[in-house]
């Protein structure tokens, strides 16, 4: 029955500024109304993100609020820091890891590579891709390059 996630929503303080930001990261504006709401396609016809202008942007961040993760391919996540930088966006530290490259999240039996950044209202955005599904054993979080090296040497799994 469920085929995927269709929509997610974030609060923003300035809809025009947010529209510019989300277009800058490659999303297509699908709809905008005069009430301070805009929708962007993530995958056209499959999923979108709604931006709502209002005071709710002041809600304190928590991982269950004001966070969206965008699925990307492994080759793209490896280039994400430079790709974001070329658009004036800075990766941010997360889980105590400096923003130098993707990190591998330890969520057995899955492992995912991820990077994190903020939109203009400090909503938490993430690029994420699976690197191992259904077979990953508990390990430590580490940088993607370290995970790839450890996996090649048989030290992870």
Q: In CATH terms, what is the architecture of the largest domain?
A: 2-Layer Sandwich
Report strand order across the widest sheet: 5-8-7-6-9
Reading off the top of the CATH hierarchy, the class of the largest domain is best stated as Alpha Beta
In total, the number of strands is 9
- Whole-number radius of gyration? 17 Å
Strand content is: 35-45%
Helical amount among residues, as a percent range?
10-25%
Ends: how far apart?
32 Å
The geometry reads as elongated
The tally of domains stands at 2
User: Low-confidence parts lasting 5 or more residues at pLDDT below 50?
Assistant: none
Largest sheet: 5 strands, mixed
- Count of alpha/pi helices: 3
Report on this structure.
With 157 residues, the protein is of the alpha+beta class. The protein has two domains: 1-58, 2,3-Dihydroxybiphenyl 1,2-Dioxygenase, domain 1; 60-157, 2-Layer Sandwich (Signal recognition particle alu RNA binding heterodimer, srp9/1). It is 20% helix and 35% strand. The chain has three helices and nine strands, in the order βαββββαββββα. The chain has helices at 15-24, 74-85, 144-152; strands at residues 7-12, 28-32, 37-43, 47-53, 67-71, 103-107, 110-118, 124-132, 142-143. It has a five-stranded mixed sheet with strand order 5-8-7-6-9. Strands 1-4-3-2 form a four-stranded mixed sheet, covered by helices on one side. A hairpin with a 2-residue loop joins strand 6 and strand 7. The protein is elongated, with a radius of gyration of 17 Å. The chain starts with 6 loop residues before the first strand and ends in a 5-residue tail after the last helix. 24% of the residues are buried.
